[in-house]
Here is the input.
Amino acid sequence: MKTNLLDEFEDLRTNSVTSLSKAKENGKKVAGMYCLYSPSEIILAAGAIPIPLCGTRQDPIAVAEKVLPRNLCPLIKSSYGFAASGTCPYFNFSDILIAETTCDGKKKMYELLSQYKPLHLLQLPQKQDGEEALRYWLGEVNQMKERLEREFAVTITDQDLRNAIRLVNEERRSLKDLLDVGKLKPSPLSGMDLLMVIYNRGFCTDKKEVVQIVDRLTSELHELYKRGVTPFNIKTPRILLTGVPVGIGSHKVVQIIEECGGNVVCFESCGAYKAVYEHVNEDQEPLLAIAEKYLRTPCSCMSPNASRFELIEKLADEFNVDGIMDLTWQGCHTYNIESYSLKNYLQEKKRRPFLQIETDYSESDIEQLKVRIEAFLEMIS
Here is the structure.
């Protein structure tokens, strides 16, 4: 359902390039991030601008494949291709890259990426529970803080961190309120429009501004719902999409679902619910609170990863979904293997239809995907 505010979000990414350029001219530093495990609070506390760099488009992959294996995950190839081709303004604006060891492909790609920009690598533990894992991760988070202090010639105080925690928590609250609009039946917002908002808002350089515009959109969508204005009806199949990160450019599965008559009402992935389902504790020692929150991120790189299964089970109930689709990029072994266990868990707990889709960023398999997704939605209906 189109609104004037959606038009604002469509322009947000383009306008952010101008904003970043002005900020750089005024001496602002920029830190590019590739993963949800990178704490944006520390970047903000350093007086810098955090900006997402994760590649979601097919265009730069050909450049990446001159160096990287062709059978590698398209997200990794797209991210590297943007850097190698010099075609991403956000990468070009970045003074430092914040990276993480979520998978073997990414951590080896980051070794190559460090030839282009200063790079700080967060070494993740392999598990989330226990004091030992937290103590280790706290040390990694503290090293990131110290690296930013050296790079930007600043001192990050506890008060700086607390202020940043409050701001990012408010950003999480606003995005969660928007995502919760999908709980309305039928939803007043398509999954494609929701994905565009989720994706474009991340490039806004002013978090207070983006909180305000997201809140306005949420309010407007509730008013549309009250008036019965929606592109869907009560019988439209409601889909929860889980799995790998999705953005504009890697949106073909979302688009096909809705072209075939479904509605993606919930995104569990990194840019959506996985990022906002809980906040950083504002009453705790700030660096420890940041470390605890980010370590609990329910990613398939962790073993075991029961928290992701539990989150999806919870979302399936809260959003009253009719089916669950698990999206995996080709070459993403952790999500691909985990899909088997996730399917068994959800069918035992929820008894809801489940479909795994493995694909890449290209359009070569669109017709095959349409056949599978149409059949899945017909079964639900």
The chain has 16 helices and eight strands. The first helix runs from residue 4 to 25.
